[in-house]
# Entry
Amino acid sequence: MWNYGMGWGMGPAMWVILALGTIGFWALVIWVVRELVRARPVTRESSSPEPRDDPLRLLDERLARGEIDTEEYERIRRVLTAKR
# Structure
């Protein structure tokens, strides 16, 4: 009835293999694109980027993390602002 050996068309098994191959191909393409996007470094674009080593900002961060107390913060801040 189906005449598999005479080349009259693909049988049901070939249609399943073709469908699975197509789905696998697109799944691979999506996975590769997702990995490439995920691996790309994230950059922040700003109109006025802050310098990374701004002493007053670093001092504020140290106070926020609890590395220094308020008295030491005020003392260092006076020294830093006096230079400017």
Notes: The mean pLDDT is 83.
